[in-house]
Amino acid sequence: MINLVKEKNPMPEQDPMVRNKNFKEVSTGYTADMAINEAMRCLQCRKKPCTGGCPVRVRIPEFIARIAAGEFEEAYQVISTTSSLPAICGRVCPQENQCEGRCVQGLKGEPVAIGRLERFAADWHREHGSGEAAAQADSNGRKVAVVGSGPAGLACAGDLIAKGYGVTVYESLHKEGGVLAYGIPEFRLPKDIVSSEVSALKDRGVCFINNAVVGMSMTVDELFEDGFEAVFVGTGAGLPQFMNIPGENLLGVYSANEYLTRINLMKAYKPEYDTPIQISRKVAVIGGGNVAMDAARCAKRMGAEEVHIVYRRSMEEIPARQEEIHHAIEEGIHFQLLTNPVAIRGTEKGYVCGLECVEMELGEPDASGRRRPVEKKDSNFVLEVDAVIMAIGTRLNKLILETTENLSANSRGGIGAEEETGATSCPGVFAGGDAVTGAATVILAMGAGKNAADSIDRYLEKRV
Ligand SMILES: Cc1cc2nc3c(=O)[nH]c(=O)nc-3n(C[C@H](O)[C@H](O)[C@H](O)COP(=O)(O)OP(=O)(O)OC[C@H]3O[C@@H](n4cnc5c(N)ncnc54)[C@H](O)[C@@H]3O)c2cc1C
Ligand code: SF4
Description:
Blueprint: H1 16-19, H2 32-39, H3 49-52, H4 60-68, H5 72-80, H6 86-92, H7 114-128, E1 143-147, H8 151-162, E2 166-170, H9 179-182, H10 191-203, E3 207-209, H11 220-225, E4 230-233, E5 239-240, E6 253-255, H12 256-264, E7 282-286, H13 290-301, E8 306-310, H14 322-330, E9 334-336, E10 339-346, E11 352-365, E12 371-375, E13 381-383, E14 387-390, E15 394-395, H15 399-403, E16 429-431, H16 434-437, H17 442-462
Parallel strand pairs: 1-2, 1-4, 2-3, 4-16, 6-14, 7-8, 7-14, 8-9
Antiparallel strand pairs: 5-15, 10-11, 11-12, 11-13
Helix pairs in contact: 2-4, 2-7, 4-5, 4-7, 5-7, 6-7, 8-17, 12-13
The site of iron/sulfur cluster has 14 residues, from helix 3 and helix 4.
């Protein structure tokens, strides 16, 4: 029987004024009854527009039907035929622009809560599943190297091991997961979930070599000399950008990546860890994307009394997910909109003491289609802060491009690769994820990793 309620079942969450002082997960997840009730909102459309909106083509109506029938493990099994990271995607995918954005229920009310149901099925499996490894092909004796253990690398490794290849993942950091481990905070994506997905790959035979910077410890060409027959490059786009304004070298200025890495990966929020990080009273975060929201909400949880998001356009243009903005506002983050920093002010000892800004107004649309922010004359003012976090985007680190013979870049400065196959200008080298597209999303990175696994398989079969 279909549930005719127009709104999604609300997600149980920690109280905002409690959660803004701890790093525990904000949303606690549907109960079994809530999940069944929500699953019964699905119309089981024959044309499945929701699945068309998913970059890895999760069989959405099928897994939802299993949840509606109370068959939760079966629901997980349906999802895992196409996605290797459902507990992660269920939490952080921008569903509003993908599957849920196309859901027929969304035409007259709220779409089916596909992401929350995906998370429910994955969490159910983690807590109640048999723990058995997925079936895979016998070893074919051929080796493929994956560079980078973010969602692109993990998805590629998972699909290759399932096809019988020996897979070794090289990761420059001491921990696997890429942005999932060092960027997205614990309160949105608990790290034990990332670890359990990585452990599942290890159980299936994927070998991880950490603290190995390809392009420095060894080159891509040397990987071929070591017997790897193909290499997938999924190195992300983790190089921070700054504004080039005066004062960016002061103590208390961070890139969002560095700030989040110290908190997430180096566990700065745990008293038993000696992670060096400045404890700040008033913090300005520059930018309006998900990264800015994460940095601001982390600063609040680290004890800052006041945290400001400083963004040069208005709330209508802000790029972060609506859910993250809503959570940030609930947690007491201030939004300093139509505001642009022009200088960071410091004390005699070199510590940040203020952020000089100008007010902005919106002019005609620019190349991105968004209205161009224009500075208001003589509108300078100073925001009193003791830390400034730059979250204005990241770029690709060029190490692999510079150390791999004949590897070409694309017009965005990333690695040049075909969208459908991940093939690059070098035979046997494939690339995907943020390293190719620039900063994007987890599910697009996974889709690229999976496409590359398929084309690596086709490429190596031809070379037999
Ligand atoms: C703070 C933050 C929040 C985000 N929130 C969301 C969200 O809510 N939803 C969403 O969908 N997306 C979000 N994103 C974007 C998303 O995380 C990325 O698009 C995605 O992780 C890209 O995956 P990837 O595998 O291409 O790269 P990454 O996740 O960046 O992984 C690349 C890996 O390669 C390693 N590496 C780099 N160079 C080398 C080398 N030379 N040798 C060996 N290893 C190397 C890096 O250490 C890293 O582990 C967020 C990003 C950030 C920074
Ligand atoms: S579009 Fe929405 S209602 Fe239709 S099958 Fe997909 S989830 Fe169900």
